[in-house]
Amino acid sequence: MPPIGIIVVIAAVIGGYKMHHGVLGVLWQPNEVIIICGAAFGSFLIANPMSLIKDTLKSLPKIVFGKEIKKDLFIDLLLLLYEFLSIARREGMLALEEHANKPDSSAIFTKYPGIIKNHHLKEFLADNLKVFVSGNIEPAEFENLMDIDTDTHEHHGTLIPTALTTVSDSLPGLGIVAAVLGIITTMGLMTEPPEILGASVGAALCGTFLGLLLSYGYMAPMAKTLENQAHDLDNILKVAKSVLVAFAKGLPPVMAIEFARRAIPTNCRPTYEEMEELIKSVKK
After folding, report:
1. Pick from 284, 247, 249: nearest CA to 78
2. pTM score, two decimals?
3. For 234-259, what is each residue's pLDDT tens digit?
4. 96: nearest Cα among 104, 106, 139
5. How many CB atoms lie within 10 A of CB 130?
6. 159: Cα separation from own chain's centroid
7. What is the distance, to the nearest Å, from the Cα of residue 127 to the centroid of all Cα atoms in its chain?
8. 282: Cβ contacts below 8 Å, ≥ 6 apart
9. Residue pLDDT, tens place only, 152-165
10. What gap in Å lies between CA 2 and CA 7, rounded to an integer?
């Protein structure tokens, strides 16, 4: 629940500060914000290629609006694959060709809009069904091919969280940089009254505060959110892979689905009886 978490972090920090009779105006130091955030963004540009920078910026809305993959999508995936495997068993592999080539207009794919909307999952299914239809690959090689696909997705999914984690790790140090610059400025005010010196030192220390808050309160959790979302995608791709591999090795559709059900995380896994009833409804 990232939006609620964002509010809770700032509310707890500001609320605790006010309980200490702190003055909020002291915390507003635009110069410190420019130093810390500007340097952090610059280091992000230095550390990453342009393609990853663009992908990271595009993924930021997912932190707030991204949705966790839930049980319903896993069930839809199993039912979709059961339908495909049943057709392949009755009519042969070539009967799946039209669905694999045009998933957006497939009568079966379109029954499950959650899968159509998840373009990574849709493309994974379509690509591997095309290979499946060709019939020119052994089950072990087919499994290796899908392993390459899932490993590539897994690696790519770590790139953006790693980039944000690097920025998070740099923020406390950049906060210290801002604080040191503030102290340097303060040293030029040694002849001023104590209240002016105190205000200047307080403004400098705000740099350390801001760097720590942005790092541990926001940037690190944001990176973890994107990492969890990538992990969810890895899970559902591996579930799809387990169905196709089991069927390619000669298991009937129902048993192939059972192999996949066992691969679903326990918090999203339907029971054996629940899956049995759902498959019966599909048969009808």
Report:
1. 247
2. 0.85
3. 999 999 999 999 998 889 999 999 99
4. 106
5. 14
6. 11
7. 22
8. 79, 82, 83
9. 999 999 999 999 99
10. 9
